Amino acid sequence: MTENEDQVAGLLLAAGGGRRLGGRPKALLEHRGHPLVEHAVAVLRAAGCARVHVVLGARAADVRARAALDGCVLVDNPDWEQGMGSSLRTGLDSLAGTGARAALVSLVDQPGIGAPAMARVRAGYRDETSLVSAAYAGVRGHPVLLGAAHWPGIAATATGDRGARAYLREHADRMTLVECADVAQPYDIDTEADLVHLE
Asked: 106-160 pLDDT, tens per residue?
């Protein structure tokens, strides 16, 4: 593993309780015979992230018991019900002191975004000041790569379900957009109707 490879950690946000899915945690939804959280970790690894931190929340003990997450750093977010912002803060905090200089942030409920898109965004990493985002027909989406120099600012503004959105909007002039519409579909698994996307 080259030094550069080790500098970008995968950060998977998998804490959601699936409120609009009848309270089924998204991490445990089945996709291709495995829990969605396993699929998402495999995608980050295939994209070149040797270190993967997974933020758990809803039914974290069940996720630990049912998903094969060997080699991952599992991080509990006790405040997961406050929304994605708290999970992003918890995840970035868990990376402090690991030597990671950037986080490739992925959401567990976007199985249409595979390794090719993840790898494309990850390849935009230059140093700890990097800000890189996938774009779909020019519109910013996930995944995003957040250089460590930005983590304190993101943590200070990540509230509710907004995640890094406010910070990224303020720093749009420093963001590199990487078009991914040709290799990925950025749908979310949010409602019962969205379950058709799972295989």
From this structure: 999 999 999 999 999 999 999 999 999 999 999 999 999 999 999 999 999 988 7
Cβ(133)–Cβ(106) below 8 Å: no
CA distance 117 to 103: 15
Q: What is the CA radius of gyration of the chain?
A: 15
- Cα gap 98→6, rounded to integer Å: 10
Q: What is the chain's percent helix, strand, coil content, to nearest 5?
A: 40, 25, 40
Residues 3-37: tens digit of each pLDDT: 455 799 999 999 999 888 888 899 999 999 999 99
Say whether 102 sits in a helix, a strand or coil. Answer: strand
CA 176 – CA 121 distance, rounded (Å):
9
- Pairwise CA distance, residues 20 & 169, whole Å: 27
Which stretches of the chain are DSSP H helices? 3-6, 36-46, 60-66, 84-95, 115-122, 151-157, 165-170
Q: How many whole angstroms separate alpha carbon 145 and alpha carbon 151?
A: 11
- Asked whether the beta carbons of 105 and 144 are under 8 A apart, the reply is yes
Query: 133 with 165: CB under 8 angstroms?
Result: no
Rounded to 5 degrees, what angle do the CA atoms 189, 113, 137 make? 100
